[in-house]
Amino acid sequence: MLVLFGIMRTQIVTEGCTKLEVPELKSFRTLAGDYAPSLTSVFYNPHMEFSRDISVLALQTLANEHRGLVVCDPLAGVGARGIRYAKEVSGLSKVVINDLSSVSFELIKRNVNLNDVSPIVELKNSDANVLLLENAHEFDFVDLDPFGSPVKFVDSACVALKRRGMLAVTATDTAPLSGVHVRACMRKYGARPLKTEYHHEIGIRILTGFCQRVAGKHELALVPVLAHATLHYFRIYLLVRRGARNVDEIFKQQGYVSHCHDCGRRVFAYGMVPELEKTCTCGGRMFHAGPMWLGSLMNRAFLHDMIAEIGRKNFRLKREEVKLLGRCADEAGGPPLFYDVHEIARRTRSQPPKLDDLISRLRKLGYSASRTHFSDTGFKTDASMDELVKIFKDL
Ligand SMILES: C[S@@+](CC[C@H](N)C(=O)[O-])C[C@H]1O[C@@H](n2cnc3c(N)ncnc32)[C@H](O)[C@@H]1O
Ligand SMILES: [Zn+2]
């Protein structure tokens, strides 16, 4: 056990091959066995190791294509992400690690020394937005990992990004994004969420669409390569492409979904101001969500490269990570917004089929079909709700 500033007990944990001095875990473990990082003066959440492993893989995949990358971790906590990048990703030229909190800053310094990464690390103790704005076009990879919503950092991150870079964003305000707090989502993201069986996917698409619209004014097109909803957070990885024409292409794939709660039908409307159907073919009222990104959230080739990278890493959570990335690769290229097998079984008063049987049946009938990482009982297909009802009744 170590003590920082005489105020905080700390301990050493290991993630990947990085050692981290963090607030003593038992000091913020709840009775339910969870962690409450808000109880400590420096932020560290052990449950985010999974997210950090995935981030290391994404950055390594990017670094394999472009050597000498400059990385920024502007909201670093104990420095877990930035230090892991410096230690575990090959081919980086610099990692800037920043936190506004002076206690965090001290701990990050100790963690940099603990891992011998000072030659490529630059430490800052600044406001994240100031740091990003002062470093226009300096970073190839910006990792926004804030408390709650990332919205107030996206604009400055776009200023700081270089051509061909990548923006990684975490959002833990999943309740507004998923339709629990509708007005909070509209205030923050300028979009209406909707509670449905696929509300997490709507939330991640609203988050993605928001980042793309902010980037659009900088003439940056943000193209998703991976988006996942895990535990209490959403995480998205967006490749940067420059130029008004690329931005226009992105905006063509923004749009709305109209959902009928009576029959479960959903209709997509593409563009910024499309006409939305008010009434469903069943006579029910349509409820709308958007604007949001309706294009692909996943890039299969990028994900396969990430999976190949796992083989070279010694990650504790490897099995779960391969499962997540495999599911994400499966759903790449599929249509937006998954269906839930139990929901359709309930509507059709039939037994829920085995997902693998349903997927092969759909494929035999000529539809696209895959599982989705969003839910163990979810599937993606281009078959319509009417067609699915028929298939469920036959099964
Ligand atoms: C969720 S924690 C970061 C967790 C960290 N990325 C990790 O993986 O462990 C958010 C951090 O942002 C810092 N922070 C909050 N507002 C900030 C700001 N405006 N500028 C810089 N740091 C800020 C907090 O001190 C906190 O350490
Ligand atoms: Zn309907």
Can you give a write-up of this model?
This protein is 37% helix and 26% strand. With 395 residues, the chain is an alpha/beta fold. The strands form 4 sheets. A 7-stranded mixed beta sheet has the order 6-5-4-7-8-10-9, with helices on both faces. Helix 4 packs parallel to helix 5. It is globular and about 65 Å long. The mean pLDDT is 96. It binds S-adenosylmethionine and zinc ion (ZN). S-adenosylmethionine binds next to helix 2.
Bound molecules: S-adenosylmethionine, zinc ion
Distance between the termini: 60 Å
Mean pLDDT: 96
- As a whole number of angstroms, the C-alpha radius of gyration is 22 Å
Order of helices and strands: EEEHEHEHEHEHEHHHEEHEEEHHEHHEEH
Which helices and strands occur, and which strands form pairs?
Layout: E1 2-4, E2 8-15, E3 18-23, H1 49-65, E4 69-73, H2 80-88, E5 92-98, H3 102-114, E6 121-124, H4 128-134, E7 139-144, H5 151-160, E8 161-171, H6 174-177, H7 182-189, H8 199-216, E9 220-230, E10 233-242, H9 244-252, E11 254-260, E12 266-270, E13 286-293, H10 300-310, H11 318-331, E14 339-340, H12 341-348, H13 355-364, E15 369-372, E16 375-381, H14 385-394
Parallel strand pairs: 4-5, 4-7, 5-6, 7-8
Antiparallel strand pairs: 1-2, 2-3, 8-10, 9-10, 11-12, 11-13, 14-16, 15-16
Helix pairs in contact: 1-2, 1-10, 4-5, 5-8, 8-9, 10-11, 12-14
Structure characteristics:
395 residues, binds S-adenosylmethionine, binds zinc ion, alpha/beta, seven-stranded mixed beta sheet, 14 helices, 16 strands, 37% helix, three-stranded antiparallel beta sheet
